[in-house]
Amino acid sequence: MRTKTKIPSVLTKDEILKLLESANTKKTKLMLSFLYATGMRVSELTNLKKEDLHFDEQIGYIRKAKGKKDRIFRIPNHLIEDLRKRAENSEKYIFPGSKGKMTNRNIQRIVQTTLKRAQIQKKVTPHTLRHSYATHLLESGVDIRKIQVLLGHENLATTEIYTHVSNEEIKKIESPLDSLMKQTKKQEQEEEENKEKEENKEEEKENNEEKEKQENKNKK
User: Fold this and answer.
1) pLDDT in tens, 90-110
2) Which domain does 198 fall in, by range?
3) Lowest-pLDDT range, 15-24, 75-84, 100-109, 196-205?
4) Which of 25, 160, 173, 216, CA to CA, is 20 to 30 A from 200?
5) 13 catalytic, yes or no?
6) Structural contact between residues 42 and 49, judged by C-beta atoms closer than 8 angstroms
7) pTM above 0.85, yes or no
8) Going by C-beta distance under 8 Å and a sequence separation of 6 or more, which residues neighbour residue 61?
């Protein structure tokens, strides 16, 4: 029996902005921004070390990610300076916790607290930011195979789940009826414009004739 694939919940771009703006500290905003900007898993964020970030090349490495493989990511322009400062002031981890590094549970609590502040009525976990990252890339026209590499999926079928949640792309598909009506309306507008032009020409011609008659009359 085939297992039914659960479609992941995603946030819209407006909801992402609302969530980030509701962060109560700079560290929280940076963490949430970074999760969304890179599509990282929570465990990958908490294990990120200062030596994993190469600011000169503007790239970073996720070491021994799921499947025990390293993965590369691009450091976002918008976050590079804040991340550089954290790296300079960090002993080891980019986002340290009280016991060396932050735990997954810490990140989950931060997301839930920020979600309440943002008053977003959706079930959201840190992984939702990863889902949103992939979905928004797809909506922007990024090839699904590139998204597969960015997410670190071994199987393309895992990435293809995001084709089912790209609502913005669905909204762009025009109904054939709307297309037909739009074409009909355009034709009607063109006919109306042509008719108006002809009427204007006729009126101008009559005015010129009247003017000419008046001038001839004045000459006499």
Assistant:
1) 889 999 888 788 988 999 999
2) 175-220
3) 196-205
4) 216
5) no
6) no
7) no
8) 52, 54, 70, 71, 72, 73
